[in-house]
Amino acid sequence: MWQFGFGGRDMERLVAGRERIYLDRFWNDFSKDPTRFDEAKRRHYAALYARPGAIRAGFAQFAAFRQDAIDSKAFLEHGKLSIPILALGGEAAFGPMMGIVMRCVATDVQDAIIADCGHWIMEEQPLATTKLVVDFLSALS
To answer: What is the C-alpha separation between 101 and 116, in angstroms, rounded?
Structure first.
């Protein structure tokens, strides 16, 4: 997790105009099968990240991890969440860790591992992911 502490203007300048190169590294390394993150998806996301302020916002999300941990500890002093939570993880990525992590902060957790999938669950296994979400939400009503 130490690499998430990097940031600032230099990162933005290094990536500016090279968003696709930067993002390809994550899509290739964190996918179970990088070919599932097809060219159309790659062009789409790279174009979004190339928009003004977008890469800065992407980096800011990770730069906030340290504060998120502080805020989460303060939140937990008031007790765990009691609302239903769905925790999904790709088999080749976070897998069962999503449920384990969510049980640290919530009492009603349903978890599932999406087979043959890496980090990008909606891009790699959209039908399986959608079915799990729809089933979860349907059971709530």
So the answer is: 21
Same domain, 62 and 6: yes
How far is 81 from 46, CA to CA, in rounded Å?
35
Residues 43 and 6 in one domain: yes
Residues whose CB is less than 8 angstroms from the CB of residue 33 and which lie 6 or more positions away in sequence, other chains included: 116, 118, 124
Q: Say how many domains are in the chain.
A: 2
In tens, the pLDDT along 42-63 reads 999 999 999 999 988 988 888 8
Picking from 24, 40, 69, the residue at the C-terminal end of a domain is 69
CA atoms of 34 and 93, how far apart (whole Å): 13
> Going along the chain, which residue ranges are E strands?
81-90, 106-114
